[in-house]
Amino acid sequence: MCEVFDSNTWAWKQLKHVSLPYSVWLKIYRPCVTSRGACYWHLTNNQVLAFSYEDDKESWEIFDSPEPMSNSDYCVSYAKLVEYQGRLALIYSKGELMELWVMEDHEKKVWRRHRLISLDGLKQLLGHYPSPEAYYNSDIALMEAWPKVVFYKFQAGSSYKVVNAMLENKPDEIFKLQSDFEIVNLRGPWRWPDFSFIFFLFGFSLFCYFVRFVLGL
User: Fold this and answer.
1) Cα end-to-end span (Å), the chain
2) Pairing with 215, which of 18, 61, 147, 196 sits 20 to 30 Å away (CA)?
3) Which range of residues forms the domain containing residue 117?
4) Number of domains the chain contains
5) Where is the F-box associated beta-propeller type domain (predicted)?
6) pTM, to two decimals
7) Which positions ≥6 away from 164 have C-beta within 8 Å?
8) Sign of torsion over alpha carbons 25, 177, 154, 128
């Protein structure tokens, strides 16, 4: 079951049930990825579930993920959907290699391998290969190597910044939360009761002015 909150009507709307292939589920500990006005979830069969809502109409679709292109000895053990420069992207990772795939055409579902990144330098620093979690910007990846997280700059000469997580327990998931400066009205659309006190003050002021005018004050 899926419900969508419409900020114009300030109400929830229940949508039609979504049918997934047999024995296929949403991957656990994989947050929804938003890109170009749509929401995406990674499925257990390595496909992608997409949801879009426009002009009061919702649509669902399932499409394939790209296949890793590294050599035959490369076996993917980690895959995660991310947002990269406003586009839907997918990370493949296994040991010393990390592939970044970016969807070049959302309508035709065309993927392109954007980068093949070596993680050997991070292994020498941390003692093991970290897991990619998100992209901070176009050339900095957020890596998890518990109990540390690493901001790994892989362009223009690799560099990194290691940060201690300072948490007692390892979290189930790590994701990027990026705020903006757009004003948000959390109270919802204006309603007449919201103006009642203002109207009262305005009416009371007019009444006082009328009384003073009649009495010649």
Assistant:
1) 68
2) 196
3) 3-164
4) 1
5) 36-118
6) 0.67
7) 147, 148
8) negative
Residue-by-residue pLDDT tens, the chain, 217 positions: 677 777 778 888 887 778 888 899 888 877 788 888 888 999 988 899 998 877 667 788 999 998 876 544 444 567 888 888 888 999 888 777 888 899 999 888 899 998 888 887 777 878 888 877 777 666 778 787 777 778 888 765 566 677 666 666 777 666 666 655 444 444 445 455 555 556 666 676 777 776 677 676 6
Asked if 42 contacts 88 with a C-beta cutoff of 8 angstroms, the reply is: no
Max distance between CA atoms of the chain, in angstroms, equals 98
Tell whether 183 is covered by a domain: no
**Alpha helices, H only, the chain:** 120-126, 196-215
Q: Is 43 helix (H, G, I), strand (E, B) or coil?
A: strand
Residue 98 lies in a domain: yes
